[in-house]
UniProtKB/TrEMBL annotation:
This is Twin-arginine translocation signal domain-containing protein. NCBIfam families: formate_TAT, TAT_signal_seq. InterPro entries: Formate_DH_TAT-contain, TAT_signal, TAT_signal_bac_arc. It comes from the Bacteria.
Length: 69
């Protein structure tokens, strides 16, 4: 029984270390991207305009899935 406990602890320690290493690698890779973030190019009127369009493929989706139109 003690062998199983030791194996479990080792596995958990390994997974913790791998997780910490992954987070650290992700942080170093993401750091250059932070400086290159651009502002939104849409003004307030463009953000509020209607974007939904009931096209043929949307109508087909509704018809196939029996949504009322």
């Amino acid at each position: 029984m003690s062998d199983e406990t030791k194996a479990t602890v080792r596995r958990r320690d390994f997974l913790r270390r791998v997780g910490v290493g992954t987070v650290g690698a992700g942080a170093t890779l993401a750091t250059p991207l932070v400086g290159s973030v651009h502002a939104d190019s849409e003004n307030n009127d463009e953000k509020r305009k209607a974007r939904y369009k009931e096209t043929d493929h949307v109508k087909a989706y509704y018809r196939v899935n029996r949504y009322p139109t």
